[in-house]
Design goal:
Elements: H1 3-32, H2 53-60, E1 64-73, H3 74-85, E2 89-91, H4 94-97, E3 106-115, H5 116-127, E4 134-138, E5 144-148, H6 149-152, E6 157-162, H7 164-167, E7 178-179, H8 181-187, E8 196-197, H9 210-224, E9 239-243, E10 246-251, H10 253-260, E11 268-273, E12 276-281
Parallel strand pairs: 2-5
Antiparallel strand pairs: 1-3, 4-5, 6-10, 7-8, 9-10, 11-12
Helix pairs in contact: 3-5
Length: about 325
């Protein structure tokens, strides 16, 4: 290579470096002027959304399904429901934990277009023994524990329920003052006597004491919610104590569910307006879903009271 060619090559390289530096300086000045910088190639990590595993399990168990099993093994039926729903199951089998369900028990059940949770409840009813009732509950990690109540009673937690609003008593009066209109007419205007009679006989109905009302609530709970499972009734499921307007209950999840439900699960209220019935759900977008609605293209519009032209938008 000649000396002139070498110098020309070095000059071209130098010119390229100068152009690159000028471009970088121009980009820096543009960014300082307020323009947005060019996006980087590295993707930003997605923000994780906190998910309640218990709520997610119940949401999966709302999937509708149809089954028709005849003389099928209980384990096979449970496995089928688990695979269709996608929820995590934790069955209490006899071979694993002593007291539990019999895997080889043959059951016959047919359900059409019902939520998976309802299907599971019917299967558990079919699979229960003479003196062992089956049910379901949610574990701390959101798994669906199923099996006899005696086996589920081994997993307990403590919940405190405030009942002060139930203990509040509104005064009720059995005797009220009476107005003697005849004496008012006889006295005329300016009379100094009161028109009320028997004002000293006003008596207030004596309510039950706070301790008695608290015990009434406890009696209702242990009578209506799993009566055979409470320790006060001879069971081994849950215990209940009262303190300062609160009930302290130590028991399994399936009993807490029947006392206060799940705070994360939507409730509904029905109302009637002009002969039409409406249902309102207090759920959120993370678990809410509306079926039967879809976006459709608009092919034309018509004029109305607002003076529309009736010409489709461009």
């Amino acid at each position: 290579m000649s000396r002139h060619v070498r110098f020309a090559t070095l000059a071209a390289v130098s010119a390229g470096m100068v152009c690159a530096a000028a471009g970088a300086l121009a980009q820096t000045n543009t960014t300082r002027a307020g323009a947005s910088p060019a996006p980087t190639q590295a993707a930003q990590p997605a923000r994780r959304v906190a998910v309640n595993p218990k709520r997610e399990t119940l949401q999966k168990m709302q999937r509708r399904m149809t089954i028709d099993f005849k003389e099928s093994r209980l384990e096979d039926v449970i496995t089928f429901i688990q695979e269709i729903s996608g929820a995590e199951f934790d069955p209490m089998w006899q071979s694993d934990r002593g007291t539990g369900m019999n895997k080889d028990k043959l059951i016959t059940v047919a359900v059409r277009n019902e939520p998976a949770l309802r299907v599971l409840e019917k299967v558990l009813d079919k699979a229960q023994e003479d003196f062992e009732e089956n049910t379901w509950q949610l574990s701390d990690v959101g798994a669906l524990e199923i099996g006899p109540k005696s086996a589920l009673n081994k997993s307990k937690r403590v919940e405190i329920y405030d009942i002060n609003d139930l203990l509040h008593v509104i005064p009720r009066y059995t005797e009220v003052p009476q107005i003697d209109l005849q004496s008012v007419l006889q006295q005329g205007q300016g009379g100094g006597q009161t028109p009320f009679q028997d004002t000293n006989n006003q008596q207030q109905e004596q309510p039950r004491t706070r301790e008695q009302r608290t015990q009434d609530i406890i009696d209702l709970l242990i009578t209506l919610v799993e009566p055979t499972q409470w320790i006060d009734n001879g069971g081994d499921g849950a215990s209940i104590r009262a303190w300062n307007g609160q009930l302290i209950v130590r028991g399994p999840d399936y009993m807490h569910r029947q006392i206060n439900g799940y705070a994360f699960w939507p409730s509904y209220t029905a109302s009637t307006v002009q002969g039409r019935r409406y249902v309102s759900l207090d759920t959120d977008n993370s678990i809410g879903k509306i079926d039967g609605f879809a976006q459709q293209p608009v092919t034309g519009t018509t004029g109305g009271a607002g003076g529309g032209t009736g010409v489709p938008p461009p």
